[in-house]
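General statements about sequence and structure are easier to judge against a single worked case. No coordinates are needed to read the tokens, only the vocabulary itself. The sequence in question and its structure tokens are set out directly beneath this paragraph.
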Amino acid sequence: MQNTIQLTIICVFVAFFITLLFAPIVFKFVKRLKANQPILNYVKSHQSKSGTPTMGGLMFLFGVLATFLMFANYEYVKYSLICLCCFVGFGLVGFLDDYIKIKYNHNEGLKPYQKVIGQVGVAVIVSVFCYLDTNIGGEIVIPFTNNVINIGWWIIPFCIFVFIAISNSVNLTDGLDGLASGVSVSYLTNFAIIIGIVLSAFMFNGENLIIINEYKNLLLLIGSVIGALLAFISLNFYPAKIFMGDVGSLSIGGLIAGLVAVTKFYLLMPILGVMFVVSAVSVIIQVLYYKLTHKRVFLMAPLHHHFELKGCYETKIVVIYILITIITGLTCIALYL
């Protein structure tokens, strides 16, 4: 276990530096593509950000792939490859969305149904795989216990829903400099620690060796993502030199959903990722309430824009979101310990 922890930390540092090495290449690519982020007209405080390069998520996509493929144990890489497919698959949907925004110079991108079709396509493949895998099946882990519930083939539609919910929640959280990336790093760090605790228990109890080695590889993958995102944050924190774009936010969402699916931690994600949930729920409340009453609950949704319009500084909102994610994660870790 100690070797796995050390190797995971090495992955963090290697991914950090590889991503920074990829950064100039991505900057050159988006400059040639004239990939500047169109800003929504009704977000007045963000008009100064108009022209900031986007599609920065490409740099941590490359950083993660290069690092993980360098350190992975290829004998037990099935679950990690599934997560990487989610990472790249959702990233491809995001890339198409960003490309259309840039080509036609507006902030709409793919039609909602087109984006959902792409997301569902990847989610269906992963969901069926998880159901057919003998070590995953239709099981859902009950957080903070040793218990699971088995919902059989219903896990397939449930898993598809989880993929759509998580990927769009991360996408909605990507609205301020460093927000989505900062919350994602906090979430993934907490998730990695919990996976480490579970892995230690598996080893102590003599769990299936295949599962143990698959989980070790998952830790290396998570470490690679954390390192790559930390490198991106150095360029994205206020004032951002580059935005991650949908290619970044959807790829992170896809990866998080993939990790949830292969580890069966469906019910833990809304707790650890509480700020992702807040972003999504605030939009749902706003839309439903407006359709019913033609009035708004928030000045603007997602919630972070409401706080902005209330006069709260952007960096303060980002720090609060990250701190809440860290505190929630530490509470979950304490309960698992």
About this structure: The first strand starts at residue 139 and ends at 141.
